[in-house]
Amino acid sequence: MASEKQLKEIKKKISYLFCDGILISNLTILENLLLPVQFHNPEYDQQQLMTVINEALLYWDIPDILEQRPAEVSYS
User: Fold this and answer.
1) Closest CA to 75 of 58, 56, 57, 62
2) How far apart are CA 41 and CA 44, in angstroms?
3) Which whole-number Å values give the CA distances from 59 to 18, 26, 51, in the listed order?
4) Is 73 helix (H, G, I), strand (E, B) or coil?
5) 38, 44 Cβ separation under 8 angstroms
6) Nearest C-alpha neighbor of 22 from the set 60, 64, 70, 76
7) What is the Cα–Cα distance from 62 to 17, expressed in whole angstroms?
8) At 73, is the pLDDT very low, low, confident or very high (cuts 50, 70, 90)?
């Protein structure tokens, strides 16, 4: 079983992108994604933050949504 410290480190590497109105509607997708990454990784500089986000978007094959707002993104 993982220790509390190990669980905290694992949780730092997990982010969520909700589709059901959980995203902040007046922020872009990028701004919504940056919030938890910046919170959990305050030591990251802007380049590191963008690397983490771009890797995730490429993994999910959705690289062109960063400047859109949640209402503009198709969920299908």
Assistant:
1) 62
2) 6
3) 17, 25, 12
4) coil
5) yes
6) 70
7) 12
8) confident
Four-residue CA torsion sign, 23, 25, 29, 32: negative
DSSP 9-58: HHHHT-----SSS-S-TTS-HHHHHHHHHHHH-TT--HHHHHHHHHHHHH
For residue 1, give the 3-state DSSP assignment: coil
pLDDT, tens digit, 9 for 90 and up, residues 4-29: 888 777 777 766 555 555 788 899 98
Q: Do the beta carbons of residue 48 and residue 10 sit within 8 Å?
A: no
